[in-house]
Amino acid sequence: MRKLKLYIAITLDGYIATKEGNIDWLLNFPNEDGNDYGYAEFLEEIDVTLMGNQTYKHVLQLADPFPYKEKTNYVFTKSANISIAPYVHFVDGDMVRFVKHLKNKPGKDIWLIGGSQINTVLLAADLIDELHIAQFPIVLGAGIPLFGGVQHLRQFELTHLKKNKNGVLELRYKR
């Protein structure tokens, strides 16, 4: 069975973006060593991406051309007016059922890109197998949380910890 892996950057206070969805804190963070925080290695492990519609819009703003065109990409949306876009398939049905089905198909692992709403739904459904987190030494004070409103305890085991010169921690957890 394929694993669903959340690979994401967060602040010390657990946010993935400002309230407005801005990630300038991440893009402008000093990185003199050009460290990718395990990103290139992680990309080799996956052949599918999952993301929410807002995250998809941010990806389009940040990268031209679309950065994951060699992967199969699914964008979850609540909109009935789904447009056609290159390199992505829009999904407007039951997210949990879709991901369960996807995990049972053959292939490499699946990258849960985010955002907060999809992270929360899939965590609550106990579908996230691993967390790959780059924790930046920044406090936003408010913003979009990594997970919001999770009602049930989910425990993970730390399997990897690396401290980078610039203070960014690379953390890996498994269920």
Automatic annotation (TrEMBL):
SUPFAM superfamilies: Dihydrofolate reductase-like (SSF53597)
Superkingdom as given in the UniProt entry: Bacteria
Family matches, as Pfam families: RibD_C
Stretches assigned to the Bacterial bifunctional deaminase-reductase C-terminal domain: 3-168
InterPro entries hit by this protein: DHFR-like_dom_sf, RibDG_C, Riboflavin_Biosynth_HTPR
Biological processes, Gene Ontology terms: riboflavin biosynthetic process
Gene Ontology molecular function: 5-amino-6-(5-phosphoribosylamino)uracil reductase activity
Gene3D superfamilies per UniProt: Dihydrofolate Reductase, subunit A
PANTHER family associated with the record: 2,5-DIAMINO-6-RIBOSYLAMINO-4(3H)-PYRIMIDINONE 5'-PHOSPHATE REDUCTASE, DIHYDROFOLATE REDUCTASE FAMILY PROTEIN (AFU_ORTHOLOGUE AFUA_8G06820)
The name this protein goes by in its record: Dihydrofolate reductase
Species per Swiss-Prot/TrEMBL record: Chitinophaga dinghuensis
Source lineage: Bacteria, Pseudomonadati, Bacteroidota, Chitinophagia, Chitinophagales
